[in-house]
Amino acid sequence: MQPRRRHMGAETGLLEGWHRGCGGKRRLSWWCGRVWMVWLLQVVGAGWVSEAQARVYATHVRLEKRPDGAGGGVAIRYILNEPATAGVEIEVWDGTQVVRTLTVKAGDPGALRGENEVIWDGRDAAGTPVCCGPYRVRITAAAQGFQDWAQISDDFAPGQYVYAPTGIAVVRDSASPYYGRVLVANGVPGPNAEFLPGDRPGILKFHADGSEVEEGSWSDAGRSWLGDGASPAELEVATGDRVYVLDRTRQELLVMDPTAAAASVRRAWGPDQRPATGTVMTGFAVGEGPAGPGLWMAQSAVASDPGVYLWVLNPDGTAMAGDQGRLVVRAGAGSDLTVAPWDVAVGPGGGLFVIQSRTAAGDAAPRVVAFPAWTNQAAPLEQGLWAMGSGLDLLRGATSVAVDPTGRYVAVAFRGAVSGGFFVGGRVIVLDAVTGAWVTTLPGADQQYTDVDWDAVGNLYVANLSESVWRVYSPPGSNAATTVSVAAVELGEGSPRPYLQVLRFEGGGLVLMVTGRPQTVYEIEASSDLSTWLVVGTVTVGEAGRQEVTVPISGPRRFYRTRSGP
Question: What InterPro entries does this protein map onto (predicted)?
Fold first, then answer.
């Protein structure tokens, strides 16, 4: 299935979002509208395409030493989330040095969507076998990109199906062995739960290309989920491989590892930590606060001090016992957050993006409000930086908000509502995080969306409840992204690296002791400037793993090193 491509933005209406300009009015004058139209076209025009960053990337990198009977060397395996239409470059690193660079052309094995394998023969750029020790790889995948936002996932791939996707999140930590893993919450049992993992309430786990992970795609995390559409619900992935899952019905937040193993699950926040009786937490975010990592939660009950509350997190990712939160964004009269929040996102600089879930026709409340970073001031925030969506019937029932890792884009999901016998107002939109300008609307308007998230390189992930599928969209522009393998491969059967020891001067030469792999030929190289090296001797290390060798001495100062020979 080819990625879907469609020009987006025409249905949004450039004047339907409002900013703190032109008097902050929802219906702008003709003159003000012309100014805004020109300004918005400058913001979302061609300049955005040329600045787009990486969207294709390698994940699940594995290095495996091949037996001699299979030709030896190392099998480099990885998953690409989409084809690398501009090729792949693989650097093999020995410590801080690149010993070999492998290139793969677009369309060849190694540059395809899904599982790829490239063989390194264990030799350096000069064709010399490398010596014993650990080696890592650095994989750079590149693509020519798209002219517009494009779907890069396949709706008909088995892993894309989830009966009632109520949450979605991606592991963004490149130092994690789970880098790129996608987690999806299924909140309602489907008709074939006995046979299909996507029909079982719980947590689904996939690689970046949608394929099933090794330990199996489904887990209940050792919990009996209610499966009522809100248990489980929203997902977030924080640093330290911590996956947070909201049980909105029970008012509990769980934290676990990316395998969703029952043994890793603990309660991060619970009903006894609510700010007051009657409060209802509907959405959350985990991010940096003024005192370190914090848990930000949206309290949506209008009668119980609605707003965004903050809890300081312990080193294990759980909220401190007895902490009932602190109000950091107040909702209601006098605040730009006019009614109550439904979800919150934290940007890279600590800025807060808050959504209000409004379903009635003509509701004047803004759907999205951006606030500056909260800096531990005494009073909660009330004045926003920008707001958008006031009175827009095409934006109803906001469910989720997420900021991309660079802080450039904000994605918002809407579930929609039934109005006049028709389902309207459900969609996913992308905004400029700095200005609130409407960048694009993804395909599939007037459908139910429950959650959105971004991966480390800027792809947007969407949970579509109407079609029981999760999708991935790439922003426009050419791109490249680099992934460094977390694990290393040990060559030389774990033998120590060769090293030299000066023993004595003898007969006008320097006697060295070479320690290395038994029955291996080593070259001794000399240099006067640590830049140009010349071979000055060779030695074969015997069974003892140690061998003396005499090399000539010339010049006032020389440096020596050893490496495996030809």
Answer: 6-blade_b-propeller_TolB-like
Quick check: 319 and 312 in contact, CB under 8 A? yes
Listed in order, strand segments (DSSP E) in 81-132 are: 88-94, 97-104, 114-120
**CA angle (49, 51, 56) in 5-degree steps:** 80
How far apart, in whole angstroms, are the C-alpha atoms of residue 518 and residue 385?
68
**Residue 488 CB contacts under 8 Å (≥ 6 apart), including other chains:** 63, 134, 135, 136
Task: Determine the Cα–Cα distance for residues 270 and 272; give it in Å rounded to an integer.
Answer: 5
CA-wise closest residue to 61 among 16, 86, 93, 35: 93
Mean pLDDT of the chain: 87
Residue 186 · residue 163 · CB < 8 Å: yes
Q: How many CB atoms lie within 10 A of CB 181?
A: 24
3-state secondary structure of 69: helix
Our measurement of the distance from residue 393's CA atom to the centroid of its chain's CA atoms, rounded to an integer in Å, reads 32
DSSP codes, 424-469: EEEEEEEEETTT--EEEE-S-TTS-EEEEEE-TTS-EEEEETTTTE
Q: List domains and CATH numbers for the chain.
A: 58-147+484-491 (2.60.40.4070), 150-475 (2.120.10.30), 499-564 (2.60.40)
Q: Residue 267, Cβ neighbours under 10 Å: how many?
A: 13
DSSP H stretches of helix in 460-502: none
Give the least confident one: 40-54, 206-220, 225-239, 462-476: 40-54
What is the Cα–Cα distance from 328 to 124, expressed in whole angstroms? 57
Separation between Cα atoms, residue 192 and residue 280, nearest integer Å:
32
- The helix (run of H) or strand (run of E) holding residue 266 is strand 266-269
- Stretch (H or E) spanning 398: strand 398-403
Which one, of 241, 171, 237, lies nearest residue 208 by Cα?
171
Handedness of CA 372, 375, 378, 380 (dihedral sign): positive
At residue 402, the 3 state secondary structure works out as: strand
Q: Using an 8 Å Cβ cutoff, are 458 and 55 in contact? A: yes
- φ and ψ at residue 84, rounded to 5 degrees: -85, 85
Nearest in space to 424 (alpha carbons), one of 446, 453, 401: 446
Of 391, 442, 384, 385, the C-alpha closest to 412 is: 442
Q: Among 531, 539, 530, 534, which Cα is nearest to 498's?
A: 539
- The pTM (predicted TM-score) of the whole model is 0.80
pLDDT of the residue at 20: 33
DSSP 49: H
- Residue 241 region by backbone torsions, left for phi larger than 0, else alpha for psi between -120 and 50, else beta: left
Instruction: Work out the end-to-end distance of the chain between its first and last CA atoms, rounded to an integer number of angstroms.
Output: 48
Query: Is residue 554 scored above 80 in pLDDT?
Result: no
CA distance 400 to 227: 19
Supply the pLDDT for residue 133.
Answer: 82
Q: Which amino acid is at 364?
A: A
Phi, psi of 31 (to 5 degrees): -65, -45
Do the Cβ atoms of 320 and 312 come closer than 8 Å? yes
**CA–CA distance, 147 with 96 (Å, rounded to integer):** 37
